[in-house]
Amino acid sequence: MGAEMSLKSKLRRAERLRQLRAFGLILPLLLFLVVTFVVPIADMLRRSVHDPELSQVWPATTSAIKGWTARERLPDEAVFAALAGDLRASRDAATLATAARRLNYDFNGSRTLLFTTARKLPASAPSWTEALIAADPRWGETEVWGAINRASGPLTAFFLMQAVDLERDATGALRGAPTDEAIYIDVLGRTFGISLTVTVLCLLLGFPVAYLLANLPPRQANLLMILVLLPFWTSLLVRTAAWVVLLQDQGLVNNLLIWLGVIEKPLRLMYNRVGVIVAMTHVLLPFMILPLYSVMKGISPVYLRAARSLGATPTIAFLRVYLPQCLPGFGAGALLTFILALGYYITPALVGGAADQMLSYFIAFYTSDTVNWGMASALGAVLLAATLVLYAVYTRLVGTDSVKLS
Fold first, then answer.
1. Using an 8 Å Cβ cutoff, are 366 and 184 in contact?
2. Phi/psi class of residue 311: alpha, beta or left (left: φ > 0; alpha: ψ in -120 to 50)?
3. Residue limits of the ABC transmembrane type-1 domain (predicted)?
4. d(CA 106, CA 170)
5. pLDDT confidence of residue 371
6. For residue range 358-404, what is the model confidence (pLDDT) as tens digits?
7. Peptide bond preceding 324: is omega within 30 degrees of 0, i.e. cis?
8. Is 312 in contact with 303 (CB distance < 8 Å)?
9. What confidence tier does 353 reach under pLDDT thresholds 50, 70, 90?
10. CA-to-CA distance for 147 and 21, rounded, in angstroms?
């Protein structure tokens, strides 16, 4: 009995050591994924709801206004006095522009309001409420105080609501953004529309190529595979610039069509949706071919011969026997291509027009041009959430189809 227990203990110890060695082998990769993937996404999600900008420069005002609602008309005298003190302190510390920038996200004209008030602010006043309203009548409007209250942080839903074209009115009620400001839902729809179109085109073009690669003799298939992989050895910027040369008014495509007599004057193929879709399809086509090829290569020709021997025509054998076995390749290639297309920035920026920019363009704009990290992170969070929802729908559908096929 003791020998049996000792043997079991040794086996458990050996199993634990084996698991620890296996974990040690994957630990560098796990750390790499955490540092380069998990941490940036977590930081992006944090920035989309973290709003400390105004509270850092106006600590007294953001603290005093807590609990105020627009239904109370205007804040009490203590809030006005705190604002006067913060205005004076931020003017002296040269941080007034920071407060103006943050409030301007929510209330147009905030910069003029703050700098005008700071210039007219008296050294003392019997009533700061009357003094501030005398400096600028807009301090008597609840919209201004509502914007300050919503920006008081440290957590906010302001950027996420803006990313889906929603906002709160002075009373805190949720409403749609004004028509001239409601752009992000349209941009998100455009992003998904372009990505879906590119995915479908890649599937239509990539399936015959993958089928040919999977059924050719190895020597010829290897040569063609080099051509499929060749774009990976060329910079994305170079490939996109090449399409600029090909698609411009005096480019090779238009000159060839005119020489063949197909058209009489150049077609507009650049700085519109056509150029974006053509260039993106070319760039992403290998990502569709490779998953399809890997699945087709594993399909034995025995199945087709068996179907033919049982009386099926070549077309029926292909549709009923071969094609269903390619579904994992369809799903993997389509999902990979679609997700990559969602985040494209360089290609639409170079060959697309103003009406063809995808969500990544606006994320880059808020990151580099306006330095509005909150809005950039919120748009990224919305894109991530939409991608995860589509992925969940895809896995559910594929799982259902797999059960039916089995």
1. no
2. left
3. 188-394
4. 11
5. 82
6. 888 899 888 888 888 889 999 999 988 888 888 888 777 766 544 34
7. no
8. no
9. confident
10. 56
